[in-house]
Amino acid sequence: MASTNDLKNGMVLKLDNGQLWSVVEFQHVKPGKGPAFVRTKLKHVLSGKVVDKTFNAGVKVETANVDKRGMQFSYKDGEDFVFMDMDTYDQIQISRTVLGDNANYLLEGFEATVAMYEGAPLYVELPTSVELVIEYTEPGVQGDRSTGGTKPARLETGHEIGVPLFIVTGEKIKVDTRTGDYLGRVNS
């Protein structure tokens, strides 16, 4: 248990019949009249839904002990993804539903942070950007410029994103894992 005065960003709370909510933002408010309160923005750990919730100051809330570990993606086993704990070398399987869109940016050997609660994986955090090679894209046409449209390109993971017209097959690019947007070329 913790007090609402002890809230921190990233803290995981157990609210509403044991559902897990992560604190995205919080603000202590002391109005001129009336008691102080804490305004929070909470993200549901499993669904990703974000809600605003207000607590009275000093109220006790139940915290969940979420264990975040650095793990390395080893291989794909059917619909599951196998990760290895970097400290203990234990392997765990994580389903595609837990990974969500992060599965589109995983290559063998990629490191990620896996959040575990009571032995079960809750979510996987990738770095905000990853470097991937373009496996295939249509060739550019003479006159294509850096400004202008985009074309589809298949990454080495098999996922398709939009890239500028001047990008060619075999180039290494940087991709935002949160939005799936092209960020730029990588000079190797």
UniProtKB/TrEMBL annotation:
GO function terms (MF aspect): translation elongation factor activity
Top-level taxon in the UniProt lineage: Bacteria
Pathway: Protein biosynthesis; polypeptide chain elongation
InterPro entries assigned: Elong-fact-P_C, NA-bd_OB-fold, Rib_uL2_dom2, Transl_elong_fac_P/YeiP, Transl_elong_KOW-like, Transl_elong_P/YeiP_cen, Transl_elong_P/YeiP_CS, Transl_elongation_fac_P
Claim: Protein biosynthesis is one of the keywords in the record: yes
Domain Elongation factor P C-terminal: start-end pairs: 130-185
First and last residue of the signal peptide: none
Keyword Zinc: no
NCBIfam families to which the protein is assigned, alphabetical: efp, PRK00529.1
Protein name: Elongation factor P
Organism: Streptacidiphilus cavernicola
